[in-house]
Amino acid sequence: MSGTENDSLDVAATGDDPYVIALAPDPSSDDIWAVYQTYGSTVYICGMRWQGVATGSWDGGKVFRAGSYAGAPYENFSIAYGTYPAPPPSAPPDTPSNLAQYLSDWTPLSWETWTKYQVIRASFTLSDPESGEQLKYNIQFSTHSDFSYCYINSTQPAGADYLSEGATNFITTVEVALLPEGTWYWRVMATDDEGLSSSYASSNTANGYHFRIDVTAPTGLNNVSPADNSTDLSISTTLVCSSASDGLSGGIEYYFEISTTSSFNGLDDKNSGWQADTSYSPSLSYETTYYWHVKAKDLAGNETSFTTAWKFITQQAPPFTPPDMMLVYSSGTLNYPWFREIAQNTTYWGSEQSGIPAMNSEIQHLRLKENPVGDERILMTGINAGTGDYEIWVTTWIDGNWANSALQLADALPTGNPGMDDCRGFDVAFEDQSGEGLICYTKNVDDTIYYRIWNGSTFSVEYSTAGLPTGNTLTPYWIKMARRPGYDDIALIYLA
């Protein structure tokens, strides 16, 4: 044996040769450790390491003990390795989790959903139970539920690159420009930098698949009735189209448009919105030319173009028969008025009737106006409910019946001399063409008149005309209104 490498004492220089040698192999490598003892005037116990046949050399020489002794050499040393457990095997990556799917612009795409878009983005999370692992993934898209044929079979990142753990995504344009129509399945697995792979993740499906693609619009859509260039049609006319067909997603809906202009940009254009029915009944006017067309879409959102527009003209308006004349008058101390009607083509008053809704107390002022284009009347009253409590109420008559209740417009207005009970601070008028009504009234507020609009069925919310030009800060006390014949204008005059 040659001398030590890591000690100042060179065993060979002493001239003493090893007499006792013990060898011990390293169980975790190809190393062999040698411990030996020399015999002479001085005893040395030394150790060295054989680095394996591949290396063919020794290192790590060390003198452990030097001293004198008598007699023959003894084996007064020993070496042994401890027992080391076998290292645990490497663990494969986790199965990818948090699967989700989107359109290319990250619009969520629910499982089982039909779509007309042919570029899909799949997202998922990669993880590994061992720290510091680098990962790839393999993703497959197929129209076969058993993935026996894969339209896309892609391992990413390509080449020598890897991903860290975390969320990532794959867009189908990495492999193909557009996915074709059909029912689609996809799955993904992870592989770590040691070559170990997870199982495929493909659990987030509905009815056994992930999504479906349909890029073909419905067919067979046509106008049915009313026929093109029809005339003298009822204002209750219904538009009807044929049932369109769709070979994939189905779920067809229809969208009707009707206009008074052939370019469909009139002020009173109407549409049905998307609906399942193949008919639409819009509100129509007399003696009006209309144009209409329709389009369809399927469940995936593929729309047809509009059909060719057809035209029709509605019938003339029937002659207007004015309603019976009506007289409304106070019933004395009762909290509702009486009324009488004079029938058409008669010369006598009808019987006295009740039925007008109660209005809290004795009526002091009232105004009744009729709608010039329909059987409607608006009745406004002013009542004195006690000291400092003058009130203004309103109710309506529609098609032969009074409303079930009256609406209180103003409360707790001042009474006395002068007071609101001395004046009529309200009036009503109808527009001559539209038939909409307007009621105006005071609420004892300086330079302000309040008003509501009647649309034939309900009153609007309350509005006000603050800042009237009285020239002073004055309260309107008396109001008078009149409609302009042939127009929708209404004139108003007031005393303040």
Taking the alpha carbons of the first and last residues, their distance comes to 132 Å
* Residue share in helix: under 10%
Specify Rg, calculated over alpha carbons: 50 Å
**How many beta-strand runs?**
33
Overall geometry comes to elongated
Strand order, largest beta sheet: 6-12-11-8-9
Low-confidence stretches: 1-14
What integer is the average pLDDT?
A: 87
Number of helices: 0
Structural class: mainly beta
List keywords for this structure.
496 residues, mainly beta, five-stranded mixed sheet, 39% strand, elongated, disordered N terminus
Would you give an account of this structure?
The structure is a single chain. Helices cover 0% and strands 39% of the residues. By secondary structure, the protein is mainly beta. The radius of gyration is 50 Å and the shape is elongated.
Short structural description:
The chain has 496 residues and is mainly beta. It has strands at residues 18-25, 32-38, 43-50, 58-67, 97-103, 113-115, 120-126, 135-142, 152-156, 166-171, 182-192, 211-213, 223-225, 230-233, 239-241, 253-259, 270-271, 279-280, 289-297, 310-314, 325-329, 338-342, 363-370, 376-384, 390-398, 401-402, 407-413, 426-430, 437-441, 450-454, 463-464, 478-483, 490-495.
Layout of strands and helices, then pairs:
Layout: E1 18-25, E2 32-38, E3 43-50, E4 58-67, E5 97-103, E6 113-115, E7 120-126, E8 135-142, E9 152-156, E10 166-171, E11 182-192, E12 211-213, E13 223-225, E14 230-233, E15 239-241, E16 253-259, E17 270-271, E18 279-280, E19 289-297, E20 310-314, E21 325-329, E22 338-342, E23 363-370, E24 376-384, E25 390-398, E26 401-402, E27 407-413, E28 426-430, E29 437-441, E30 450-454, E31 463-464, E32 478-483, E33 490-495
Parallel strand pairs: 6-12, 14-20
Antiparallel strand pairs: 1-2, 2-3, 3-4, 5-7, 7-10, 8-9, 8-11, 11-12, 13-15, 15-18, 16-17, 16-19, 19-20, 21-22, 23-24, 24-25, 25-26, 25-27, 28-29, 29-30, 30-31, 32-33
